[in-house]
Amino acid sequence: MPQPILERSPILELRGVDKIFGDFAAVERVDLSIAEGEFFTIVGPSGSGKTTLIRMLVGMDAPTRGEILLRGQRINETPANKRPFCMVFQSLALFPHMTVGENVAYSLKCRGIGKKERRERATECLALAHLPASYYDRAVTKCSGGEKQRVALARALAYDPEVLFFDEPLSALDYRLRKTLEKELKDIQRETGKTFIYITHSLEEAMVMSDRIGVMRDGRLAQVGSPREVYDRPRTRFVSEFFGEVNAFPVTAKDGRLWCEPLAMAFDPPPDAPAGFKSGALIVRPEHLHFDPAAAEPIRGEVFNEYLLGSRVQYQVRAGGTTLLVEGMGGQPPATREVALSFSPADSLLFAE
Amino acid sequence: MERRSLADRLRSAWLWIVVVVLYLPLVAVGLASLSESRFFLFPIRKYSLKWYEESFASLQIRDALWTSVALAAVVGVIATVLAVFGALAYARHDWTGKGWYQQIVLAPIFFPQSVLGLALQLWFNTLGLDMTWHASVFAHLVWIAPIVTMVVAIQAYGYDASVEEAARDLGATRWMVFKDVTFPLLWPGVFSGLLFAVLLSWGNFPLSYFTSGADVTVPEWLYGKMIGGYTPMVPALGFLSVVAGGLVLAVGLAIQARLSRQP
């Protein structure tokens, strides 16, 4: 068994890092510690500051305030080419005038390593990225989208960095290829034992690959935790909604229960509801809302749409002037358009507003 | 094959009209140079290459050719070097005053060249510069360097700037980034820019006229003979000058095509 992530020594630490452009804070008061050999993913919508954060780590931008530490040493002033890091760019940034091999071996050339050894090591890295050695002399412009991803990865591996950064490199690929590469990336990370820091706006991507996820919003880290923690126990409504569509019931506290005005009914609060809650939103994910004709206090509604999502089915239900989403595994479809819905309080999340 | 529509045929007819109108004068000059007669009369009674022979024998023309070639070569090299760095400043780097620079770098192109020539002549006089073809180098550069800068800047905009960051991230020094990434990617623009510079300098009359003093370039010699003492060597040399420009362009394009075929 590998050591649990959090008990390992941190390789990278951020302490109170700010990045201010004019009067706009792109990154604000970020404290973060990333463990050796961890696959850490920073997730956030566009403009949340994740790219700015990664650029500061790599050394392409300097923080306005705060410290960046590599194994306890401040590296704020170390330029990008002196940091033991390497970045796989969103655009991949392959050198279009070079062959696959020249791309992969470029960092070795910069270090003054001889031609023969360059070729050997670059070929090894191509193999790690699942590219045959015959690709060495191919023009990089002749490669397909997926092959280019692999070349970019091999080029980063050839640099032999302590930390590899990824700036949404998979976002331009089609779904199936993306899924394959996500898993391969995870395998390569395990194989090499290197620390990977990945940024993406897709939580789905983050869930598949990461040991831990940091969710960013408006330049701040809204939550850091394992994929399970972030999914099951989101700390804010924003994080809970970031995983996909949710049902949000506006509720107010009333006699120890939660009164929902639009539905004219009350719910039991979740077991860990914050004390002193007055009003806010009760969040229930579509897969936690069930068709339940036998429910004691059902939400009554009417199915008006049905979408097949592959293995799951999503229903849109109109109830009390709002639209609810119900997701089932395709098992029992409701027999009538009039339905009764229920959920377990333990599956709901309560956020004060 | 489908029959071409009327619109298609009209379009190609228009294309041919434009080509003929543009190039007919050049053909006329070529014909004029082949007439044996001292005066330009159509139809040509007797064809001959005698004016070409006389042109090649003329010391004046040899001097003019030498001056024009030297001027075009020096202007081409200096303008291209300036343009590479000017284009990087224009397209790549962020610096205070970049906005201003982008606005005014092209200004000399919009000056009427004769006004620019006169202004430069007055300016060189004030500075006490001798009016020779060396002064014309500066004059040509004022007008040509901005154009070449634009040609290279277009190339600089044409590739993804993150490749330079990637190279740096992979451990390249600034010089290595320039040598291994920036310059090779700029090269097609640099080469076109060099061609532009040489051809624009080769054909330039007004700037040379005001600044070259006693030195005479090919366009100046042609002009001089046109206003005083026409000889059929004018069309002969004129035609040769066009052919030389065409050759430079053709050779340049061939080299570029050859280079871009390699991976």
TrEMBL record, chain A:
Highest taxon of the lineage: Bacteria
Keywords of the record: ATP-binding, Nucleotide-binding, Transport
GO biological process, one term: quaternary ammonium group transport
InterPro entries tied to this protein: AAA+_ATPase (IPR003593), ABC_SmlMolc_Importer (IPR050093), ABC_transporter-like_ATP-bd (IPR003439), ABC_transporter-like_CS (IPR017871), Mo/tungstate-bd_C_term_dom (IPR008995), P-loop_NTPase (IPR027417), Transp-assoc_OB_typ2 (IPR013611)
Gene Ontology CC terms: ATP-binding cassette (ABC) transporter complex
Stretches assigned to the ABC transporter domain: 12-243
Gene3D superfamilies assigned to the protein according to its UniProt record, in alphabetical order: P-loop containing nucleotide triphosphate hydrolases (3.40.50.300)
GO molecular function: ATP binding; ATP hydrolysis activity; transmembrane transporter activity
Pfam families cross-referenced by the UniProt entry: ABC_tran (PF00005), TOBE_2 (PF08402)
PROSITE patterns in the cross-refs: ABC_TRANSPORTER_1, ABC_TRANSPORTER_2
Protein name as catalogued: Spermidine/putrescine transport system ATP-binding protein
Organism annotation: Albimonas pacifica
UniProtKB/TrEMBL annotation, chain B:
Subcellular location: Cell membrane
Source species, domain of life: Bacteria
Keywords, in A-Z order: Cell membrane, Membrane, Transmembrane, Transmembrane helix, Transport
Cross-referenced Pfam families: BPD_transp_1 (PF00528)
GO biological process, alphabetically ordered: transmembrane transport
Gene3D superfamilies, alphabetized: MetI-like
Mode of membrane association: Multi-pass membrane protein
Stretches assigned to the ABC transmembrane type-1 domain: 65-255
Transmembrane parts of this sequence: 12-34, 64-91, 103-124, 136-160, 181-202, 233-255
CC terms in the record's Gene Ontology section: plasma membrane
Family in the record: Belongs to the binding-protein-dependent transport system permease family. CysTW subfamily.
Protein name, UniProt field: Spermidine/putrescine transport system permease protein
Organism: Albimonas pacifica
Lineage: Bacteria, Pseudomonadati, Pseudomonadota, Alphaproteobacteria, Rhodobacterales
